[in-house]
Write a structure and sequence with these properties.
With about 350 residues, this protein is an alpha/beta fold. It has one domain: NAD(P)-binding Rossmann-like Domain (Rossmann fold). Helices cover about 40% and strands about 20% of the residues. It is built from twelve helices and 15 strands. Helix 1 links the parallel strand 1 and strand 2. The longest helix has 22 residues. The chain is globular. The model has no long low-confidence stretch (mean pLDDT about 95).
Length: about 350
């Protein structure tokens, strides 16, 4: 039986990947020690999702292991050996604000944890496809140097600019302020590329924009749309930091991202990098997202504005996904912003997390 190993398996992307690849016939080995709760508190715990995966997926086996623990990870890989066909590495410390307070924890989880996973793959199943969820923060604040135009509800890029359809993989990751989180993820990003190019392993790097969906346990420090909707439903204050609330993000639903992984698995490349997000198909400013959540939830939000922006935050970021579309023409985005917001609302209410 083909095995897919998924780290961060009880998180948003990991749980989506676990279900998706299980449905495709894989036995799924989930690795998740609920560090998300340590990062962001009890409201971010992944334990409910872990229990759901264990009860709903017949070929799912969970391991509460630390991805930095070479011995523990090596033992898991040795148990399944050559049956491992796919490794989907989503486990991470995902917040650039949080990283500034605990840089050693951030770097070891994101960079050393990724190295541990790569080495385990190389030693026990070198022919497996290795997928890494990177981040657009590897570009640092370089996107803020783009010629932006202020519109009524958002910032936009100049009509004649090369990145009008979104930022592609040609943008430099050098000479910019990344945040410590961006640095730790960039380190991991380069490691995954190098294991592909140096060792010939089938490694794919996906630099995500805002990854979202109804399965997200959003908090103030991570999970933009999910946390925004939660605040809208409950009446909790939502804080906007700088840029007049017009900063723009593209948003990709976890299903579309994991389906992208699956297309890559079917025809992998060595050390390939892709920008991946909602692109022009699914994007919004903070102000537009607030209006959307208010419409979907049927109530007004309690919003507090702060002039100071978050360090290294992007004013405008939309992913150009055309490179992946050229390489994998069978894939396409299916979840637009309205559908994503409805999914988040319905699952937030259903889970009783309000």
């Amino acid at each position: 039986m083909a095995v897919a190993i998924v780290t961060g398996s009880a998180g948003l992307i990991g749980s989506e990947a676990s279900r998706f690849f299980h449905d495709k016939g894989y036995s799924v080995v989930g690795i998740d020690n609920n560090f998300r709760q340590e990062f962001f508190g009890a409201e971010a715990s992944t334990e409910p999702m872990r229990r759901l995966l264990e009860t709903s997926l017949t070929r799912y086996k969970h391991y509460s292991a630390d991805i930095r623990d070479e011995a523990a990870i090596g033992k898991i890989f040795a148990e399944y050996g050559s049956d491992i066909e796919v490794v989907i590495h989503t486990a991470a410390q995902p917040s650039h604000d949080w990283a500034a307070g605990k840089p050693f924890m951030d770097f070891t989880v994101n960079a050393i944890g990724t190295l541990t996973m790569l080495e385990a793959t190389r030693q026990h199943c070198q022919n497996a496809v290795f997928i890494f969820t990177s981040t657009n923060k590897v570009y640092g604040d370089t996107p803020n140097e783009l010629p932006l135009v202020e519109l009524e509800t958002r910032w936009e890029i100049a009509d004649d600019h090369q990145y009008k359809n979104g930022i592609d993989e040609s943008m430099s990751i050098d000479h910019s302020k990344h945040s410590l989180f961006g640095v730790s993820k960039a380190s991991a990003d380069l490691l995954v590329q190098e294991y592909g190019r140096y060792f010939g392993m089938k490694t794919g790097i996906f630099r995500g924009g805002c990854l979202t969906g109804g399965g997200h346990a959003g908090t103030q420090l991570h999970g933009f749309l999910s946390y925004l909707m939660k605040c809208c439903i409950t009446g909790k204050e939502y804080n906007i930091f700088g840029y007049k609330g017009k900063q723009v993000r593209d948003n990709i639903h976890s299903f579309d991202l994991v389906n992208c992984f699956y297309n890559y698995v079917k025809a992998p490349r060595c050390g390939e990098v892709y920008n991946m997000g909602g692109s022009r198909f699914s994007n919004c400013s903070m102000a537009e997202a607030i209006t959307l959540c208010e419409r979907v939830a049927g109530k007004k939000m309690n919003v507090i504005y702060h002039e100071a922006n978050r360090i290294g935050d992007h004013i405008w970021y939309i992913s150009d996904v055309s490179k992946f579309e050229r390489h994998y023409p069978d894939w396409n985005l299916t979840w637009d912003l309205e559908r994503i917001a409805a999914d988040i609302f319905e699952q937030t209410v259903r889970k009783g997390s309000v």
